[in-house]
Design goal:
The complex is a heterodimer of chains A (about 350) and B (about 290). Chain A has about 350 residues and is an all-alpha fold. In chain A, about 75% of the residues lie in helices and about 0% in strands. In chain A, strands 1-2 form a two-stranded antiparallel ribbon. In chain A, about 50% of the residues are buried. Chain B is an all-alpha fold. Chain B is about 70% helix and about 0% strand. Chain B has eleven helices and no strands. Chain B is globular, with a radius of gyration of 24 Å. Classes of the chains: A mainly alpha (about 350), B mainly alpha (about 290). At the A-B interface, α1, α2, α4, α5 and α6 of A face α1, α2, α4, α5 and α6 of B.
Chain lengths: ~350, ~290
């Protein structure tokens, strides 16, 4: 804002006679191309709304509150996918934020320069690894590890009563805290694996934003505390982090946006089931994973439309998260950082 | 600036043991967390090297996948497909993205400016798979699966990244440079084209490379646009394969041979993406 004001006040006022025809042509061309951005947004909303209209018209709000998603019967409720999306994203966020902030502190405050740079590069490369590659790695490396642990759990006779009891509970569509931690099968795939891989995938977004804002904390804020005899951790926890908190929060919400829309890695490992929080180790699904898994095969009109309605929901969720991030940053950023 | 150099020598004796222990403990935890953050990258790369390098023979680059379950074959169809679609996506991504960046940086008083800025930020947050649905609705519904539809989705995904970096580097070009051009009597468009853009070219190229590295790994928007193709296809109106698509299909396949190709494909893709990202960083650092 201040930038543009400064900029326009500095630009010399030119008389109309001086502005050439070339200026008008160039300006028109740039404007036309820039308008494509607006066009892409409008077309996206229009496409998604038009195609999801049949489903939303048929089911109304029940689309979001009904948990049965049955292409054979033609009933489509997105509740289990909405819950799956929120649970995987929020859990991954909860695990990744402390790790990401810690790694940012390491790069910005602890590491000597020769180490800070390569570690910073590595974290940025983590963001460049494609979703499918994460999915492949999770499927071939992490899933077998979880699977071995689950097999051991089932082979242990001491666990038999628990397994029997939980199976009965699950059959009635219920769960308990204990059963939530009991695996329903030994495949390795499921909610937990999706959370693990999402955690890794969103780490770099929070980490690099956090690193940048921590570097922006004015040196005198820290030096004043050091001068008072504070330890390094006291300076970090009472001067650096409070000062950088708005920026870090922005990075966290950016990561949340990524997690919500993350598709193939999750689709490959989550197990594609409509269970809602039955077991941490059991199958689940997210909106993005259902789009990836079902849109290609969705022949029937209502099925196809319901899948696009998931896309529309995801679209709006991303827009809302995006705005929330910018609002929070604008509200909390201390003057002088912007 | 750096805390390490700013820390004065403190009399250690005055620290109570509790504070000192807490300080050391938190330092250790932070180091441990950093190791945990960086470990997956190294583990993934080492895993792909071990599993995929052996499959990267001549056939990998010159053949198309063998029929399901049969040995041999390569990913030539995916390599040519990725390159073709990225080239097509760049036309959209670079054209619209650079123009958008110029618009935001050079015409800040235009009434459309706030909406272009906002919508470009919004586009940056839209999941890639949703862009796939959009491209499906725009092209595939009428014309069937084609690499044009895939490239459209990828191009849309490139736009916000290119807009952002272009705007930022254009703003780094000092106003005095523009004023000098205007003072010499050049019209604004020539100042932008002949003075500002060349000065910012390095940064713009960096942004484009980062955008390419980002979308080169996207499979989700291609699932129902480019769709995939077992043979080499250079006709943009027909289905086409891409590296991330083949990795997805191979990794979820039950056959060892397809999985092996997927791992080699992942190694190739990740190596290309890393090289592009590092090159982009190196180029931007050099300025």
């Amino acid at each position: 804002m201040s930038e543009s004001a400064r900029r326009s006040s500095v630009r010399p006022a030119r008389s109309a006679a001086l502005s050439s025809g070339g200026d008008r042509v160039f300006r028109g061309l740039i404007l036309a191309l820039a308008s494509v951005i607006v066009l892409v947004f409008v077309l996206s909303v229009y496409q998604l709304a038009r195609e999801s209209w049949p489903a939303l018209q048929t089911f109304g709000w029940r689309f979001f509150t009904e948990r049965t998603w049955n292409p054979v019967e033609g009933t489509f409720g997105a509740l289990s996918m909405i819950v799956g999306t929120l649970v995987t994203s929020l859990a991954a966020l909860a695990i990744s934020v402390p790790l990401a902030v810690a790694s940012a502190l390491f790069v910005a405050e602890y590491a000597p320069k020769w180490l800070a740079q390569p570690v910073g590069y590595l974290i940025e490369l983590l963001a460049a690894v494609p979703s499918v590659v994460y999915g492949l790695w999770a499927l071939f490396v992490i899933a077998p590890i979880l699977g071995r642990w689950q097999t051991a759990f089932f082979l242990d006779p001491a666990n038999l009563p628990t397994i029997t009891r939980c199976n009965e509970l699950w059959a009635q569509g219920q769960t308990s805290l204990q059963c939530f931690l009991v695996p329903p099968g030994a495949g390795g795939r499921g909610l937990a694996l999706a959370i693990i891989i999402l955690t890794v995938m969103i780490l770099p977004y929070t980490a690099s934003v956090a690193r940048d804002v921590i570097r922006l904390v004015p040196a005198d804020q820290r030096e004043a505390m050091y001068a008072l005899g504070a330890t390094k951790w006291e300076v970090i926890s009472r001067a650096t982090l409070p000062y950088a908190r708005a920026g870090i929060l922005g990075g966290v919400i950016l990561a949340l946006g990524r997690a919500l829309g993350e598709t193939l890695a999750v689709a490959m490992v989550i197990g594609d089931s409509q269970e809602i929080l039955r077991s941490l180790w059991g199958g689940a699904s997210t909106m993005a994973s259902v789009i990836a898994n079902q849109f290609g095969d969705a022949q029937e009109r209502l099925h196809r439309s319901s899948v696009v309605a998931l896309g529309l929901t995801l679209f709006f969720l991303s827009v809302v998260v995006n705005f929330a991030a910018r609002l929070i940053i604008a509200r909390l950023t201390p003057r002088g950082i912007q | 600036m750096r805390a390490a150099t700013a820390t004065p020598a403190r009399p250690r004796a005055r620290l109570s043991p509790a504070r000192r222990v807490k300080n050391l403990l938190m330092g250790a935890l932070i180091l441990l967390a950093t190791v945990i953050v960086v470990a997956p990258l190294i583990l993934i790369f080492v895993y792909l090297l071990r599993e995929g390098l052996g499959a990267m023979n001549l056939a990998f680059f010159t053949r198309t996948p063998a029929p399901e379950g049969e040995a041999g074959g390569g990913l030539l169809n995916a390599i040519t497909g990725s390159l073709t679609m990225l080239a097509m996506a760049s036309v959209i991504g670079v054209g619209v993205g650079v123009a958008g960046g110029i618009f935001l940086a050079e015409y800040p008083r235009h009434p459309l400016m706030p909406s272009v800025r906002m919508l470009s930020d919004v586009l940056a947050g839209i999941p890639a798979i949703v862009m796939g649905l959009v491209a499906y609705g725009l092209l595939v519904l009428q014309f069937g699966f084609s690499s044009i539809a895939g490239a459209l989705a990828l191009g849309f995904l490139m736009i916000p990244i290119v807009v952002r970096t272009t705007e930022e580097v254009l703003k780094l070009v000092p106003l005095t440079v523009r004023e000098a051009g205007l003072a010499l009597g050049l019209p604004q468009w020539l100042v932008i084209l002949r003075i500002v853009l060349p000065a910012a070219a390095g940064g713009i190229v960096t942004g484009v490379m980062l955008a390419l590295a980002r979308v080169a790994g996207e499979a989700a928007p291609l699932l129902f646009t480019a769709f995939g193709n077992v043979s080499v296809n250079l006709d943009p109106t027909k289905p086409m394969s891409a590296l991330p698509l083949e990795i997805y299909r191979g990794a979820t396949s039950a056959y060892d041979e397809n999985q092996r190709l997927a791992k080699a494909g992942a190694l190739l893709l990740i190596t290309l993406i890393f090289l592009t990202s590092l090159l982009a960083r190196w180029a931007s650092r050099r300025r």
